[in-house]
Amino acid sequence: MTIHFQRELEKIKKRILSLGAMVEERVRLVIRALETRDGDAAKKIIISDHEIDEMEVEIEEECLKILALYQPVAIDLRFLAAVIKINNDLERVADEAVNIAERVQVIARRQRLDIPFNHSLMAEKSEFMLKKSLDAFVNMDVDIALRVCTLDDEVDNMMNEAYDVVKHAIGEHPDRVSYLINLLLVSRHLERIADHATNIAEEVIYLVEGEIVRHGNYL
Fold it and tell me: Most buried pick, 30, 34, 72, 116, via CB within 10 A?
């Protein structure tokens, strides 16, 4: 392939990493808004979502243009295929951040209800998985990617715990159903962020090893 083609690939990699940094920042900000019940901060996240959407479309269009112009093969083809999927997962992570922000706006207007579950550990784990999945991509590191994949079950277990706690709390506080459902939805959105981080890690494994690994088949 030509030097120009390699430059195009480098440009794509820089853009997807820039998108990753933007999405990481959105997740960090929405977790802070959740912890502080800051409805104004949540509103800013919602308003700025179009920036992520626009960049996601631009990256996909660039990938498709390169595929059409150069018809790459082997590792270069895998790279572009992986970027297209990672690009989509990052946009979906940003969507989940917006979903959490919308829940924060509701929660912030309601009186706090103490229940034996908070989102701190789940949020920390999901944020960590996203960061490490992008680290795995930057370094083409299968070991880091596999670590991310194995953490997904831990977040799933936290989601199940949140469901049980909220279900019990609804029975104890039937007048607070709306508030409690919003708490449960936050857990669901955090779990989805972890899922998308896992998808990114799986794409890194595919990119490096040339093998498709999904549904927990990491051995």
Answer: 30
Structure tokens belonging to residue 209: 């090893």
At the fourth CATH level, the homologous superfamily of domain 3-209 is Phosphate transport system protein phou homolog 2; domain 2 (1.20.58.220)
Q: CB–CB of 21/88 below 8 Å?
A: no
* 19-74: pLDDT as tens digits: 999 999 999 999 999 999 999 999 999 999 999 999 999 999 999 999 999 999 88
Distance CA 200, CA 145 (A): 8
Q: Are 195 and 152 in contact (CB under 8 A)?
A: yes
Domain residue ranges in the chain: 3-209
Task: Indicate the DSSP class of residue 175.
Answer: G
Closest alpha carbon to 119 in 150, 153, 165: 165
Question: Do residues 184 and 99 lie in contact, with contact meaning Cβ atoms separated by under 8 Å?
Answer: no
| Angle CA 19–20–22, to nearest 5 | 65
